[in-house]
């Protein structure tokens, strides 16, 4: 198993495998990895003939095998790309399991003129290929590439390139500040860059602009936590809670942030019930409209009564931690379970 940096080094040396499994959260980065391999193996004039793309959600084993077995046209290599190949994930239906087993067996007998690239996207940032039994099996017959976070200097440079490609210059200090605040995912980075470019128009980008439009990463974690709660994902909620506690032993601050976020959902729900529109709510909370839309989606998962009760649970937990010598982690777990039990 390798990462993007190693893959790039191998491509530069002209070293290629017969098949690759790409995985990660960042689809833009994965596509860049695919482009590196394609450009080194297929001439631009022959792309339509020797680069085959198959939708991993609808493809069949026969589709994959037929694409791989067909000889390249006027070239030495052909590349077959199976994108969003969800059958590579551990949890799939019977059809996905069958397709995975057939493909796993076929990878041992690929024609030498074919490079097969299949990729799938993680469900969230806490997934890793090492947790997947299917990926472990694939790693024995194929080259698995994990598209994780880029190293700092390379990350900053690539973020700066995103702005330059859109015709917007950004200072070195500002690009680092932006890079540290935004989630390290180029699908998200591109959207956030578009938002800042549209907001600043013809003037220079400042730190103040970035602060106005991009939430802190800690706020993102709390948003994710509440999103998992709204979706009734107990295990993911607890995993994120433990991660937050491991980063910082600040139980009171975490509870306060959770309570404040649920309070905001309660207030937004009241505004919605009174007929307030998204733009009006965005103006009241000084938030971008797309963030408000996400918050509305969250608050729709709860009733006003539930939100009131959840805020009470947070307050009770906060008081316990202040006034007694209880096990803080245990009380935080209990708080999460009580929130899930709220009706």
What does this structure look like?
With about 350 residues, this protein is of the alpha/beta class. It has 17 helices and 6 strands. Strand 4 (about 80-85), helix 5 (about 95-105) and strand 5 (about 115-120) form a beta-alpha-beta unit. The longest helix is centred in the C-terminal third of the chain and has 23 residues, at about 250-275. The protein is globular. About 25% of the residues are buried.
What is the fold's blueprint, element by element?
Blueprint: E1 2-3, H1 4-12, E2 19-24, H2 27-41, H3 47-50, E3 51-55, H4 61-69, E4 78-83, H5 94-106, E5 114-121, H6 133-138, E6 143-147, H7 152-165, H8 172-181, H9 186-200, H10 207-213, H11 217-230, H12 234-247, H13 251-273, H14 278-285, H15 289-299, H16 304-323, H17 328-341
Helix pairs in contact: 1-2, 7-8, 11-12, 11-13, 12-17, 13-15, 13-16, 14-15, 16-17
GO molecular function: DNA-directed DNA polymerase activity
Keywords: DNA replication, DNA-directed DNA polymerase, Nucleotidyltransferase, Transferase
Enzyme class: transferase
pLDDT < 50 stretches:
none
Topology as H/E string? EHEHHEHEHEHEHHHHHHHHHHH
Mean pLDDT: 89
The Rg value, from CA coordinates, equals 24 Å
| Number of helical stretches of at least 4 residues | 17
How would you summarize what this structure contains?
Residues 219-338 form the DNA polymerase III delta subunit-like C-terminal domain. By secondary structure, the chain is of the alpha/beta class. Helix content is 60%, strand content 9%.
């Amino acid at each position: 198993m390798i990462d993007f940096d190693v893959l790039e080094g191998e491509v530069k040396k002209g070293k290629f495998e017969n098949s690759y499994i790409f995985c990660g959260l960042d689809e833009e980065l994965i596509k860049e990895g695919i482009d590196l391999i394609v450009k080194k193996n297929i001439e631009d004039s022959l792309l339509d003939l020797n680069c085959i793309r198959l939708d991993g959600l609808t493809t069949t084993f026969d589709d994959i095998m037929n694409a791989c077995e067909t000889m390249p046209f006027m070239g030495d290599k052909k590349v077959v790309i199976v994108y969003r190949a969800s059958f590579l994930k551990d949890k799939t239906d019977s059809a996905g399991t069958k397709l995975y087993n057939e493909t796993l067996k076929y990878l041992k007998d690929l024609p030498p003129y074919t490079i097969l690239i299949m990729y799938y996207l993680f469900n969230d940032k806490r997934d890793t290929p090492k947790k997947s039994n299917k990926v472990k099996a694939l790693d024995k017959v194929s080259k698995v590439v994990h598209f994780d976070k880029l190293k700092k200097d390379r990350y900053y440079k690539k973020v700066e390139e995103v702005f330059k490609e859109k015709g917007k210059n950004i200072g070195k200090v500002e690009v680092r500040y932006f890079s540290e605040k935004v989630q390290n995912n180029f699908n998200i980075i591109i959207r956030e860059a578009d938002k800042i470019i549209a907001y600043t128009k013809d003037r220079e980008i400042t730190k103040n602009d970035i602060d106005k439009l991009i939430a802190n990463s800690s706020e993102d974690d709390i948003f994710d936590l509440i999103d998992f709660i709204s979706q009734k994902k107990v295990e993911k909620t607890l995993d994120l809670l433990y991660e937050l506690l491991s980063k910082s032993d600040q139980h009171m601050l975490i509870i306060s942030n959770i309570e404040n976020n649920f309070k905001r959902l309660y207030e937004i729900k009241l505004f919605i019930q009174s007929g307030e529109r998204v733009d009006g709510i965005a103006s009241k909370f000084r938030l971008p409209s797309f963030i408000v839309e996400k918050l509305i989606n969250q608050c729709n998962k709860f009733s006003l009564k539930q939100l009131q009760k959840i805020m009470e649970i947070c307050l009770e937990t906060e008081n316990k931690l202040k006034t007694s010598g209880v096990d803080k982690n245990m009380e935080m777990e209990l708080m999460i379970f009580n929130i899930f039990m709220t009706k």
